[in-house]
Design a protein that fits this description.
Length: 507
């Protein structure tokens, strides 16, 4: 079959700028239909609804909520902090419906990579935007993975304070914790280097620890409130409308980061059973479950955190202590250490799910001749994109040695501009361009959900301090990726340099 020949050609080409023109033009003329891709990618559809919800929730409930819970309260204030979690959930549901329609229509490995190619045309702007998406994933995915590993190592410092020390006096910023973070990343890569059935069994074990951590914080918080005379909000000074709005926007940006992961199953779309039903249900169920846990955790924590939340930005150890103090106040000193240990477990589980999902993105792009060709390989025994997995794990290990103080803001802004907004406008564009397209799941109340998601993302982009700095970083990534794409496209005579006869055909 021609698609198999193209895949073999992909595996033998290692230079992103050196793929043959004939081979690439052949691949870009191919329509990315689910049937064509399934026959060539050799990824088996083994993921059911329960496992899909599991993988989503593992990524959503990572180290983030335990670190950022006091930060949300500090940014929005005690009374508005709950509304920051609610606003984040509304944005997640609205955006999740966009992912659900696209994921059910195009259940392919790579998620957004496949969506952007289909929406904007694989022989037109879709070729550029999908390349740009993979380019930004090369920055944001390893940073996401590394941030989880660095958070994990920060929590380990509660048990081993020596991790904060610097092994090299001339490099005080390089600490033992960085090496512990890199080791955790390497361990996750090794654990994922196996077949999907084994990965799913391990994921359920990790998920048990995640739920124990969440329930431990929630039960401890309400137990402490009951022992202290009942649940009540701490006193807080009144804020002007402008300050309240700015604080709510910053807090919503943080909660949006904590909710992200509801779309993880879309990156595994080529391995999902009955994707037209499983993907939409998994997205909506995971947002529903996680938002209930987050809101309950915030309510439980409010009486215990009090003014300590305003000092939460001082260090990772203090943020852990604030959450662990809830359990310590309710049950004694041993409970604080148990909660800290469970948070370490949760961080590890989140990194596990992150690397699992994102490893499919470079693979999907390489398979289509739109990235490094050697990443298109599938392991002959385990049936996983092993080269893409290892490459992403190695880059994430390197990022573990960088400071990621502003990683949340940079991740959120970059992905909103170069991924989410493109999909939200794109799902509406696709309704106009291809009304005949089979859509197993259609967005209810269309076009309200994508418009709500757009409005929510623009709200947290604009209404916060130092908004221009984050936008400048996202712009730099977009410009550098575009320049690289144009150099490559000119050499391969792809859009916008394709011959008239080739560019005139629409996919």
């Amino acid at each position: 079959m021609a698609t198999k020949a193209a895949a073999r050609c992909n595996r033998h080409s290692g230079n992103i700028l050196g793929i043959s023109v004939q081979s690439v033009q052949h691949r870009t003329r191919m329509t990315l239909s689910p049937h064509a891709i399934t026959s060539s990618q050799k990824l088996e559809r083994r993921i059911g609804l329960r496992s899909a919800v599991l993988f989503n929730m593992l990524e959503m409930i990572g180290v983030g909520p335990f670190i950022t819970l006091p930060l949300v309260i500090a940014a929005a204030g005690y009374r508005l902090s709950i509304w920051a979690w609610v606003a984040g959930a509304v944005i997640a549901v609205a955006d999740g419906l966009v992912w659900a329609e696209l994921g059910a229509a195009f259940p392919l490995a790579g998620g957004s990579y496949a969506f952007l190619r289909e929406i904007y045309g694989p022989e037109r702007a879709g070729n550029w935007l999908s390349f740009l998406f993979v380019w930004q994933v090369g920055f944001t995915a390893p940073l996401s993975i590394a941030s989880g590993c660095i958070g994990l190592s920060g929590f380990l410092a509660v048990f081993w304070p020596g991790l904060d020390g610097a092994p090299i006096a001339a490099l005080p910023a390089l600490r033992y914790a960085n090496f512990a973070a890199a080791a955790a990343c390497a361990l996750v890569t090794v654990l994922l280097y196996r077949n999907l059935r084994s990965i799913t069994r391990l994921a359920w074990v990790l998920f048990a620890g995640v739920m124990a951590a969440l329930m431990g914080v929630i039960v401890s918080g309400f137990a402490h409130a009951a022992a202290s005379g009942g649940w009540h909000l701490p006193k807080a000074p009144a804020l002007s409308a402008a300050l309240a709005l700015s604080g709510l926007a910053q807090a919503t940006l943080i909660t949006t980061y904590d909710y992200w992961g509801y779309y993880n199953i879309c990156f595994l779309g080529g391995e999902v059973r009955r994707p037209e039903r499983t993907i939409p249900r998994a997205i909506l169920l995971s947002v529903l479950f996680v938002s209930a846990f987050y809101i309950a955790m915030n309510l439980a924590a409010l009486p215990s955190l009090r003014d300590a939340a305003t000092h939460a930005a001082e260090s990772a150890a203090l943020r852990v202590q604030l959450v662990a103090d809830i359990a310590r106040s309710a049950w004694g000193g041993w409970a604080g250490y148990v909660i800290a240990a469970l948070i370490v477990w949760t961080a590890f589980a989140s990194v596990f799910s992150l690397l699992l999902g994102y490893s499919r993105v470079p693979y999907a792009a390489a398979r289509d001749g739109n990235y490094f060709g050697f990443l298109a390989a599938v392991h002959p025994k385990h049936g996983i994109p092993h080269r893409s997995l290892v490459a992403l794990g190695v880059v994430a290990c390197c990022f573990c040695f960088f400071s990621l103080t502003q990683v949340i803001t940079l991740l959120v802004i970059t992905r909103i501009l170069l991924q989410f907004l493109l999909q939200q406008f794109g799902v509406m564009l696709l309704r106009v361009k291809r009304p005949e397209l089979k859509r197993p799941f259609k967005i209810p109340l269309y076009p309200l959900p994508p418009l709500v998601a757009i409005a929510g993302f623009l709200f947290i982009l604009v209404n916060r301090a130092q908004a221009l700095a984050g936008l400048a970083v996202a712009a730099a990534i977009a410009v550098s990726g575009t320049v690289l794409y144009l150099i490559r496209a000119r050499r391969l005579r792809q859009w916008p340099f394709a011959p008239a006869t080739s560019s005139g055909t629409s996919a």
